[in-house]
Design a protein that fits this description.
4 domains, disordered C terminus, mainly alpha, 23 helices, Monooxygenase, Exocyst subunit Exo70 family protein, single chain, two-stranded antiparallel sheet, disordered N terminus, Exo70
Length: 638
């Protein structure tokens, strides 16, 4: 009879979950040829009588029972050895062991059916995988002889069985990758079998898809969700803050934990195929990294404002810290295949890092602009620390926690300025103050120069606001409050203090002492004038009317000062104490001396009570009410 040459089953990227192999309707016919490949004669011709097409089903079952997989495998191996000895262009086609091949394929198919039905669970056993490897070699060995009808029939059968087996292994491979990736031995056995059977593409695709899903899930578990650049531009900053926190956590987790785990898994599963392992991992990592980098780039492109600085710094640091980890993941001492991927990804990450750095510089410029534009025309009640001072100094203190990062950012920015303009304006933003612990610190450290510029702008802004007060004494209290707040914030931060150094703080402290002197002169010089001897005596006698007027003036001025300045605010306890002590040190001794010299000239009784309202101890107690921010304190004491 004439055989129809049916097409050999072809591989596909994605297998069907069902077997493409269907058992033949025709049963094998008993052959009178020995099943032992050892007695085969190469010169034996192939005839229609040798083709095992049909036979009695009962006889087939008996023959199948007589043969087991090891003996059939031995027959197949002998046949493969014969084919191998013929070379690439055999002149004679050897006899085909139809029955052995047919039964060998049938046993494999039977095992697969058991595994698929769940009635057996040893499909990772070496014997089963070895059988598939043998079937793959058999298919490859039969292919050159496919023009022969006998070989074509055997080829169709073994190809279909092999395809069915690979479909089964693909499903199993996928399941293991999702459920048991910590079992690399089983995964490696399947991968090795699929690759050696010519199914490298299918194996790689299954691994890539399965682990990409797992990687994306691990990123999502850290809180980050993929978002487009357009959506980033439209999202309110409050929402983006949470996204950035999640991004930073996810990015660090991916580079330090997830990627190394995937790298190890790839190396273990494809231990004998390093190029495949490298290619799969590079594709996996790049896909996830691009998603993460797209978000970082979108943040760098978003509208800039000073409030965004610290979250962007967190992203910048994450990129800076994680870039060195790429080399261990991508570059292998045994292969140069990963160097190109490593170079490309490093370049992309560095580019995003630079753009974030430029955004950081712009945000500092935005802080400068916000200080310059703060031109409120109403003075702050009580001369307290201005909200702008609190905001800027807390901002700078927080920024100094990123000291090393910001130094790097501004240094890189200065280099870029030099490369684009050919020079760099070292005096840009010079506010007149100096900072840094060493002589050339300001010009050598761009962050220091930036901090000095911002603090100088703030100081100048406060001087402008101080001029809004009609009372010069209150104006000086305002400058003392804000100046002390600035100094305390600098000294309270180790990084901030290291950057600006003692020189800058000493200069500002000298300004504070001058404000203090100005306050005392404006407030208490007129009070002290009441205690002068000039004009109190004439021809050796005390002029009582003048003396009474002196006491009356002192009482009026002192009570007015108490009433006014008890409402003034000095929130820094140390500064408040210093001011009170300094006032007491000047006023109380002078008053005590004045009383000792002249109180005797007042008539005892009502006259003394009328003009001498305060004792020295009373003055001290009342002075301690100054700068409480409470205008009613004096009334309560009365």
């Amino acid at each position: 009879m004439e055989l129809t040459q049916s097409p050999i089953p072809q591989k596909s990227i994605s297998f069907s979950s069902s077997s493409p192999f269907t058992h033949r309707e025709n049963t094998l016919r008993e052959s009178d040829r020995s099943l032992s490949l050892g007695s085969l004669s190469i010169s034996t011709a192939v005839s229609d009588d040798n083709i095992f097409i049909a036979g009695d089903a009962e006889q087939e079952d008996e023959n199948a029972a007589a043969d087991d997989l090891p003996s059939l495998s031995d027959d197949v191996d002998k046949f493969l050895s014969i084919l191998s000895s013929l070379g690439d262009s055999p002149a004679i086609v050897p006899d085909l062991p139809d029955i052995s091949i047919e039964r060998f394929a049938a046993l494999i198919e039977k095992d697969i059916s058991k595994y698929e039905s769940g009635s057996a669970d040893d499909h990772h056993s070496p014997s089963f995988l070895n059988s598939l490897d043998r079937a793959s070699k058999l298919t490859a060995a039969l292919t050159p002889f496919s023009s022969d009808p006998h070989y074509l029939q055997a080829l169709n059968h073994t190809s279909a069985v092999l395809h069915h087996a690979m479909s089964f292994l693909e499903d199993d491979f996928h399941s293991l990758l999702l459920s048991s990736p910590s079992s690399p031995t089983r995964l490696r056995s399947i991968a090795t079998t699929m690759i050696s059977s010519g199914y490298e593409t299918e194996c790689s695709q299954v691994f890539l898809i399965s682990r990409r899903n797992a990687l994306e899930s691990s990123v999502s578990e850290q809180g980050f969700e993929k978002i487009s650049i357009d959506d980033v531009q439209r999202t309110p900053w409050e929402s983006l803050e949470h996204q950035i926190v999640a991004w930073t956590k996810s990015f660090r987790h991916a580079l330090s934990i997830s990627f190394p785990q995937e790298r190890n898994l790839c190396n273990e599963v494809f231990r004998s195929h390093r190029a495949i392992a490298d290619g799969i991992f590079h594709n996996l990592a790049r896909g996830i990294l691009i998603q993460l980098l797209d978000f970082a780039e979108a943040i760098a492109m978003a509208k800039r404002s000073a409030e965004k600085l610290f979250k962007v710094l967190d992203m910048y640091e994450a990129l800076r810290d994680m870039i060195p980890k790429l080399e261990d993941l991508f570059v292998s001492p045994d292969s140069s295949d990963g160097e190109e991927s490593y170079g490309n990804l490093t370049a992309e990450m560095s580019a995003v890092q630079r753009r974030l750095g430029e955004a950081i510089v712009a945000m500092f410029c935005d802080l400068e602009s916000s200080i310059k534009s703060e031109t409120v025309k109403m003075p702050l009640l009580g001369g307290a620390v201005h909200p702008l001072t609190r905001h800027v100094m807390n901002y700078l203190k927080h920024a100094c926690e990123y000291k090393n990062t910001l130094e790097q950012v501004f240094r890189d920015h200065r280099r870029m300025d030099r490369s684009t303009s050919g020079s760099f304006d070292e005096e840009r933003g010079d506010g007149g103050r100096t900072g840094g612990g060493s002589g050339g610190g300001r010009n050598s450290n761009p962050l220091l120069r930036q901090l000095v510029k911002v603090t100088d702008l703030l100081h100048n802004n406060m001087e402008g606001k101080a001029k809004l007060y009609k009372d010069l004494a209150l104006s000086n209290i305002f400058m003392m409050n804000n100046g002390r707040y600035i100094v305390q914030k600098i000294k309270g931060s180790e990084e901030f203090n290291q950057l600006l150094g003692d020189t800058w703080c000493r200069k500002l402290s000298a300004d504070l002492r001058q404000y203090h002197k100005n306050y005392q002169r404006e407030t208490w010089s007129k009070v002290l004038a009441c205690f002068k001897d000039e004009g109190l005596q004439s021809k050796g006698s005390v002029l009582k009317p003048v003396l009474k007027d002196r006491f009356r003036c002192f009482n009026t001025m002192f009570e007015e000062i108490l009433k006014t300045q008890s409402a003034w605010i000095v929130s820094d306890y140390q500064l408040q104490s210093e001011l009170r002590v300094s006032v007491s040190a000047v006023i109380v001794p002078a008053y005590r001396s004045f009383l000792a010299r002249f109180s005797q000239y007042l008539d005892p009784g009502r006259q003394t009570e009328k003009y001498i309202k305060f004792g020295p101890e009373d003055l001290e107690a009342r002075i301690d009410e100054l700068f409480d921010g409470n205008p009613l304190s004096l009334l309560r004491r009365k």
